Amino acid sequence: MRVLGVDPGLTRCGIGVVDGTAGRRLAMVGVGVVRTPADAPVGERLVLVEQGIEAWLDEHRPDAVAVERVFSQHNVRTVMGTAQASAVAILCAARRGLPVHLHTPSEVKAAVTGSGRADKAQVGAMVTRLLRLDAPPKPADAADALALAICHIWRGPATDRLRQAAARQNGTAAAPSASAASSSSSAVAARPAADRPAARDTAVRTRESAT
């Protein structure tokens, strides 16, 4: 599986591509950052982010895209830019029919380091070790993008299987109810008329009238 990880940001959007499967060795395919000038209009910056992501998609042809799920932060202006860049990444992937998966920062940290509270230095160190790199990718946005890709390779298939199992369970759980209702209705309809409550009452009244 080849996964393109996106650490969304309006000034720096981290991109990382990793090949691998769960339980096997991973290999970095590419890593980088899409940058936009801080003094440019937001629309132009989003176009640059889109163009950058599209170029990575064209070059590396991933099987899936993993994007960091955006959470509210104290700096509203920063989180708005992050959310906008995240939306662009999701759009680029969806336009190509690629599956898009969102992972929270704590999920990524836990998958890569074993702790959901790991700092950026720890994440960078583990990414370097797992991908057998000479040094941690710089800036941190690039390392985070690789961590996202690794997280999805390891956790994505299991998460998909759980969702599919839950969907199947919900689908089969509803079926017996409908079937039971149908069987109950059929059983009532199949009873002889004299065995039904209304039929017995009518028979009693008829005998009393005749008497």
UniProtKB/TrEMBL annotation:
Mg(2+) 1 binds at residues 7, 141. Pfam families: RuvC (PF02075). Residues 164-192 have a biased composition (Low complexity). CDD domains: RuvC. Residues 193-211 have a biased composition (Basic and acidic residues). It comes from the Bacteria. Keywords: Cytoplasm, DNA damage, DNA recombination, DNA repair, DNA-binding, Endonuclease, Hydrolase, Magnesium, Metal-binding, Nuclease. Residues 164-211 are annotated as: Disordered. Gene3D superfamilies: Ribonuclease H-like superfamily/Ribonuclease H. The active site is at 7, 68, 141. Mg(2+) 2 binds at residue 68. It catalyses: Endonucleolytic cleavage at a junction such as a reciprocal single-stranded crossover between two homologous DNA duplexes (Holliday junction). InterPro entries: RNaseH-like_sf, RNaseH_sf, X-over_junc_endoDNase_Mg_BS, X-over_junc_endoDNase_RuvC. One of its GO terms (molecular function) is hydrolase activity. The keyword Membrane does not apply. Its cofactor is Mg(2+). Homodimer which binds Holliday junction (HJ) DNA. The HJ becomes 2-fold symmetrical on binding to RuvC with unstacked arms; it has a different conformation from HJ DNA in complex with RuvA. In the full resolvosome a probable DNA-RuvA(4)-RuvB(12)-RuvC(2) complex forms which resolves the HJ. The RuvA-RuvB-RuvC complex processes Holliday junction (HJ) DNA during genetic recombination and DNA repair. Endonuclease that resolves HJ intermediates. Cleaves cruciform DNA by making single-stranded nicks across the HJ at symmetrical positions within the homologous arms, yielding a 5'-phosphate and a 3'-hydroxyl group; requires a central core of homology in the junction. The consensus cleavage sequence is 5'-(A/T)TT(C/G)-3'. Cleavage occurs on the 3'-side of the TT dinucleotide at the point of strand exchange. Belongs to the RuvC family. This is Crossover junction endodeoxyribonuclease RuvC.
